[in-house]
Design a protein that fits this description.
This protein is α/β, with parallel strands linked by helices. The chain contains 5 helices and 6 strands; from the N terminus they run H-E-H-E-E-H-E-H-E-E-H. A 6-stranded parallel beta sheet has the order 3-2-1-4-5-6, covered by helices on one side. The radius of gyration is 15 Å and the shape is globular. 31% of the residues are buried.
């Protein structure tokens, strides 16, 4: 019952803050993409390792990479790119200013490597000013993303990374 109340307030605020008036949408070939934001759930160590590998690979390809991650922990995290439950208000909405600073960065592409319907990472996509917001989920709010790749909820971190990267690298404009 209490979680349902928290979810109600979380989704009410999230839906109110979605940037519906986005005008700078741009779908381009991956070779032309320069600035990429990687948003992921860092609760699982294997996902952290996958994201580090992807970050290094993309940097070696000449891409500018910025990351932001959520870790489902009660410990306060002081890294500017990481937030935890300590950085959420009582109904689960982020309060860490660095998250909102991340959303206004001029990204060509923001990729969401998480599949939680009520994840606080969704706030990044609600506020993002990027040219393209790409995510994966089995029943995600379509207003949060420009492209959502369908999946089931049981994808591993590696499967999510592979699915999104295979899709984005195959785009020909």
């Amino acid at each position: 019952m209490i979680q349902e109340i928290k979810d109600y307030f979380f989704f009410k605020r999230l839906n109110r803050e979605i940037d519906h008036g986005r005008k700078n949408l741009l779908l381009q070939e991956f070779s032309e993409v320069k600035n990429i934001g990687l948003v992921y759930d860092a609760t699982d160590f294997l996902m952290i390792a996958e994201m580090r590998d992807l970050e290094i690979k993309l940097k070696n390809e000449g891409k500018n990479i910025s990351v932001f991650a959520f870790i489902n922990s009660d410990e306060k995290k002081y890294e500017p790119f990481l937030f935890s439950r300590k950085d959420l208000n009582w109904y689960g909405y982020p309060t860490k200013q660095q998250l909102f600073d991340f959303t206004v960065m001029d990204f060509d592409l923001v990729l969401g490597f998480f599949n939680g319907l009520n994840s606080p990472l969704n706030v990044i996509f609600a506020h993002s000013k990027s040219k393209l917001r790409l995510g994966i989920n089995y029943k995600q709010n379509p207003a949060l993303f420009d492209i959502i790749l369908g999946s089931d909820s049981n994808l591993s971190g590696k499967d999510i990374v592979n699915k999104l990267m295979n899709f984005i690298t195959e785009i020909k404009t």
